[in-house]
Amino acid sequence: MIKKGMRRQIVLHYILVVFLALLLVEVIFLLVIRTYYYDSIYTRITTQISQAEYFYRLSSKDSPFALQELLRSFDLNNTELQVLTLDGDMITSSTGFQPDRTITTSDVPEAVGGGIGRWVGRQTGTNESVMAVSKVLQIPGHDSYVLRYVTSVERVNSDLFNVTLLSAGIVVAVLAVVTAFSFGLANSIVKPLNNITAVSAQLAKGKFNIRIKGDYRYEIGELASTLNYMAQEIVRSNQIKDDFISSISHELRTPLTSIKGWSETLISGGYDPEETKLGMSIISKESDRLIGLVEEILDFSKLQQNEMKLSIGTVGVQELLKEIILNLWAKAEKRSIRLELEAEDGIYVRGDANRLKQVFLNLTDNAVKFSHEGSSVLLSARRVNEEEAEIVVQDSGIGISQEHLNRVKDRFFQVDSLNGGTGLGLAISQQLVELHGGTMEMDSELGKGTRVTVHLQLTEPLPAVEAPDRVSLPEPADHHERKEGQQ
């Protein structure tokens, strides 16, 4: 007995389907064979009746001698020919027995009704299976009789029974072969699943280095590949998480050390106002840095839990990019990096101004951070069509390799961990852009720079709001006049 499980279900279902199919085929086959044999007998008898009727019409005699001649001339082997009245009373028969009995089978009324009657059943007295075929012999001006042939179908039934036994044997043999085949089929499915289940149990226990081995095909192969990929991604995520914890610990410890050190120094007293002012400035700066790190982590947590709320309004892209440049000008000036703006007038998008500023501030800050000294960072905006705007942040800095480019927007991933940060900036920017119904694409070549393209849906400006005044951007001391975009 097969124990309960998928193997048993597969075997039983497969055998059941094949058995029902074979049973249906066998029933149809036996019905066809039986119908063929019975119809052959019926056809032979009806042909003989037609000849007898033709002979009777030619003789035109209504006498016992004509009927006897009919019996002698048109008798069939192993068949009794009977002549009956229209009421079913037997007048004579080819056997000469029981001439006074009345026939009550359904073939006689059918023949009297004008057709050829056919009846199959068991004959009274002998209990033998027979077929009776009857037809009325009628000549105008003469008496009408019923000509009835009765033949045994025992031999036919015996042959049909033998055919049934043979077909049943074939069915049993086929089922035996199918059963053996179904076990092989079930094992080919169940064994890989058992292997996958065992590996999954190991993965559930935290053994993520284990993999499903075996060249499985079709859906099982896809399942195995998916689980292996899942395990690989878990290992990678754990590694990224560990790297993130290590990185964020360092990021948090550095400002905390500065704050603690200067706090203890200031508490001890004995410093002039300038030194005190310097210490307080460092404490304030490091506190802002800590707040930025914490806010970044909180933003990411909200995005992951779909709890980020947007304050939707109409945002002027040119004015937004100007604010970005003003915010980062001092940082860029320290490294002699030019911030350039090329933006078409009248580009407005629908979104949260603060969150969009966060996106482009992060993108521009990254561009400044990874640009060479004396290079430039370009912020541009243009209409792609009547429905979409394209905003680009492009630098000519160190660039990103193709290997890292595919992962740079993953959470916690950092191309260069020495530059600090949580590795969440681009992941947050990507999700914020998607929340605005836009897309963010990155193109980069190692050593030649990076281009980040953001597509956002255009909207009409608020009619009551006047366009803001032009913002004059400060110029770097060591460079030419900075190139302005369309203002």
Automatic annotation (TrEMBL):
CDD domains: HAMP, HATPase_EvgS-ArcB-TorS-like, HisKA. One of its GO terms (molecular function) is phosphorelay sensor kinase activity. Residues 476-487 have a biased composition (Basic and acidic residues). Residues 187-239 form the HAMP domain. One of its GO terms (cellular component) is membrane raft. Residues 247-460 form the Histidine kinase domain. Residues 466-487 are annotated as: Disordered. Signal peptide: none annotated. It catalyses: ATP + protein L-histidine = ADP + protein N-phospho-L-histidine. Keywords: ATP-binding, Cell membrane, Kinase, Membrane, Nucleotide-binding, Phosphoprotein, Transferase, Transmembrane, Transmembrane helix, Two-component regulatory system. The chain crosses the membrane at residues 12-33, 165-186. InterPro entries: HAMP_dom (IPR003660), HATPase_C_sf (IPR036890), HATPase_dom (IPR003594), His_kinase_dom (IPR005467), HisK_dim/P_dom (IPR003661), HisK_dim/P_sf (IPR036097), HssS/ArlS-like (IPR050398), Sig_transdc_His_kin-like_C (IPR004358). SUPFAM superfamilies: ATPase domain of HSP90 chaperone/DNA topoisomerase II/histidine kinase (SSF55874), HAMP domain-like (SSF158472), Homodimeric domain of signal transducing histidine kinase (SSF47384). It is found in: Cell membrane; Membrane raft. Its EC number is 2.7.13.3. It is an enzyme of class 2 (transferase). The keyword Kinase applies. It is a multi-pass membrane protein. This is histidine kinase. It comes from Paenibacillus rhizophilus.
